[in-house]
Structure formats: C-alpha cells, structure tokens
Amino acid sequence: MERDTIIVLDFGGQYTHLISRRIREIGVYSEIYPYDVSIGELEKISKLKGIIFSGGPSSVYSEGSPLIGREFFVWCKRREIPILGICYGHQLIVHVLGGRVNRSAREYGKSVLHVDNKEDLFQGLEDGEVVWMSHEDQVSLLPSGFEKIGHTDNCAIAAYRNTRDNIFGVQFHIEVHHTAKGGKILKNFVEGICGSKPTWRMNDWIQETIQNIRKTVGDARVIMAVSGGVDSTVAAFLIHEAVGEKLHCVFVDNGLLRKNEAKQVIEEFKNLNFEHIHFVDAREIFLRKLRGVVDPEEKRKIIADQFIRIFEAKARELEGAHGKFEFLGQGTIYPDRVESAATSKSASKIKSHHNVTLPQGMTFKLVEPLAYLYKDEVRKVGKLLGLADDVLWRQPFPGPSLAVRIIGEVTEQKLDILREADAIIQEEIQKSPFKDKLWQYFAVLLPVKTVGVMGDARTYENVVAVRAVESEDAMTANFAKLDWDILERISSRIVNEVKGINRVVYDITNKPPSTVEWE
Length: 519
Ligand code: XMP
Prior knowledge:
Elements: E1 5-10, H1 16-26, E2 29-34, H2 39-43, E3 48-53, H3 70-79, E4 83-86, H4 88-96, E5 100-115, E6 129-141, E7 147-151, E8 159-162, E9 167-170, H5 182-193, H6 202-217, E10 221-226, H7 230-243, E11 247-253, H8 261-270, E12 276-281, H9 283-290, H10 296-322, E13 325-329, H11 334-339, E14 365-367, H12 375-384, H13 389-392, H14 412-430, E15 440-454, E16 457-470, E17 478-479, H15 484-497, E18 501-506
Parallel strand pairs: 1-2, 1-3, 3-4, 4-9, 10-11, 10-13, 11-12, 13-14, 16-18
Antiparallel strand pairs: 5-6, 5-7, 7-8, 8-9, 15-16, 16-17
Helix pairs in contact: 6-7, 7-12, 9-10, 14-15
The structure holds xanthosine-5'-monophosphate.
Xanthosine-5'-monophosphate binds near residues 396, 511 and 517.
C-alpha cells in the first residue's frame, strides 16, 4: 500500500515502540526495524519519508555497542530522507559524523529545556519546556555543519540540527508523556521536516493485517487460544476475518479462573459467529502440575507449557476431520513482549508472560496479529470490528490467572477463598463511580496469618490484599486513590463473608517500582 512511512531504527531502547506508536497517533504510518537493517531493505519502502534513531542502553564507546556507518548518512542525503536521533541515537549521529560525546554526570528525570532556535524542530515551543532525560553520556562537540538548538542546565547541547543534510537530534525522550511538548516536536519532524501526510488510519491497519494473515496461513488451519479477554477476542476476530472456518478457537478452563468466569466465557463464545469453538476442562491437570510450586517464574512456566500441551493435543484430535493445524493464534500484545524481554536483545526480563515464553520444541508457528499494539490500540481495533463494549472494556486478566494472585503454593482451598474475596471487590467497585476509571481491581491472597478478634474470640487467619490501579497501557500504573468508604465496605464484607480471612490491606505502590500483579 502506498502511504508515507517513517521508520524507527531500534538501538535497544525501552521506549522504542512508543516512538512508533506516537507517530501512528499523528496519523502517519510507522514501523520499527533493527538498527542494522540493510539499505536494500529500506529501498523497498516506497514512500519512506523519514528515519528516527531510537535511544538505547549503550554508550557509543562501549564494546559491541550498536553503530551505523557513514554510508548510511550518505544514502539518506541522496534520497533526501531526514534523520532524527533520540538519546543514544542523538549521540551516535555526532559520534559517527566527527563530533565528540563525553561521559558526564548521569541525568535522569525531568529537566527544563531552553530553546535556542524555533525555526523547525522546536516550532511552537516556549522557552522553559519540561523534558524528560535519561542518560550518562552527552554531546560535547558538534560535527561541522551542525548547530545547537536547545540546552538545559546540565546539558549544553540538548538538541541540534544540520539543515544542509536534514539531520536533527534530541538528548531527551520526546516519546514519553513527561516531555510535555514531545508530541508537538515529533509532529514538527514527521509533518514539517519530513513532509509526511497524516493519512494513515487504524482501518488500513486492519485490512492489511487481515491480508497478511491470509497470506501467511494459506491452506493450513489455525488453533487459537481464547480466554474471553479483549486481546484474544480481538485477535480471534481478525484471524476469523482472514481465514474463516479454518480457525478453531479453544477455551481452556485451567481451574484458576475467577468466580463464574468459565461459565460466562463459554456462554459468550456460543453467541459469536465462529464455526468452531472447543472447550477443554483441564482443571485437574493444572492444579496437579502446580502442587508444591511457590516460585512465580516456575508457576508461569508450568502454566505456559501446559497450555501448549493442551493445544497440541487438541490439534492432533481435530486433524483427522479438519486437516493439519500448522498455526497457533494468540492475542499477545506489545507490553507482554516487552516484559518478557522478547522485543530487544538488550531488554531486561521482568516476568515471563504466559503467551511469550513458549516451550522448546513446540511445533506450531505463531499468528499474533496484535504483537505490536498496546491495549488501548487493541480496544480501538475491537471497536472498529464491532465488538461489544463489555468485551472491549473488560479488565485485563493474566494468562497464569489466579495462580499469580496466590502468593506461595496454589491449592483448591486457597483458590476458593481468593475467588470469594475477589468477587466482593468486583461487586463493590462496579457499583461505584470508580468503575470506568480503573485499569484493574482484584484480590491477592497472602501466605501470612495474623491475629484478629471476632465475636469476642481470637482468630488467626490469612490476609487479603486489594489491588486497584489506573493505567494507560500497563507499562506504568498508579494505585487508585479509592475512597475510604468503598475500601471499608470491601474490607468488612471480605472479613465477614469469606471464611479464612481476618485482615484486608490496600496496596499503595505504583508501577514502577512494583508491577501490577504480585507475581
Ligand atoms: P504486570 O504485573 O507485569 O502486568 O505489571 C501488566 C499487565 O499485564 C497483565 N499480565 C499478563 N497478561 N499474560 C497476560 O496475558 C501474562 O502472563 C500476564 N502477566 C501480567 C497484568 O494483569 C497487567 O494488566
């Protein structure tokens, strides 16, 4: 499809994908490529209007740091393609083109930008804009043909331009919300400097994705893991649009679901227009495999492996009647892959999301149409596909389910306790005005016993933690400032109605430094 494209070269930065996402929000198509992509690959992009170098954890001086040769800049100049470097990208440009980068005092967090030139990249900015820094090295000498266009108190060359070759650089991160005018700067680059037209729409993405799935799957069959959650439902809709009755959806009751959840999901899927839906009752096997396991990563791995074993067995069972199942469809989204360190060689692993850490020797090939989207983008796709609001706005629920909300060993009895406590939280918050403001709210069962007094008698029972967070995309989250009356109602109902609990605490940590789920 002919459309203006901006590409982002990935140097291993934590926010690389956000750059691409922000460009799409402007309405211009954007894709990420590894930093060492060949010029031949780039030649294939018909309307390539600009290139952004992402940030990254390296120093241009460290051994093995990702570098780019001078010939790349020569090619861009010949093709009249502007370049913007961000953070490491900003330093790399200077390093390769003959300037100097110095080790300096680390600068992390908010900083104030003094704008020295407002002609192009910083058009429309005021002096003293808040920007977000995260670096150790900084540019100390610009190559010839470059001029400084911004500085901060700690960083003498926080931004530069070279108008002859159309090269720009910013030391700060324009892709994060903390840089107040980051969107404006990006728009100045994408539209003003690169001349891209904001004509790209999510509907184009849907049509292209459907065509790609069709091409990839060909005559094969797809077995698709569905949970009733928004990601897997939207992914299933897309795959179904592409391959129709060649899609077989499988919903697994792993025995770790919330109160009444399995029944509800089964009912819901029965009402959808899919030709093949299968339900697998695997409660017993999951619980057996989890017996005695306390380590969070081990729980996650066992659950991920078991899911795949079930899909493999189901595929074998169906093969005789329907043909070969070459593909496994999944609703994996971008943050799942970031946290499982699947997006970049240099990223750090936070936790193994069940649909990313797949067992070795798995024979399926993957179809993951949402792999580059964030949850709010998935919801937009779902809306365009006609999904009902109650599916679109359902709270995210982790694949390893309640197993990562029971700290310590998972048992049937603990699951029952957690389900009851969780149902009370759901009920109380859904009655409250907070319902639509929260990303997630749930209960966590702690392996801690404390003393209480009920009906004049001593109790010695477990603690439940209440977790409620606000978030835009789950990459960061803030604990919700719920009102005391609601918390009090939740607490007294749990202690009164759930046998085995005599104390309720509220989790008041943000992500980072915590994560949303406790394991
Ligand atoms: P954390 O706990 O990493 O969670 O801050 C971020 C978001 O991801 C959800 N989550 C998962 N989703 N498979 C999933 O599909 C998983 O293994 C998984 N682990 C966490 C979590 O509920 C939150 O919305």
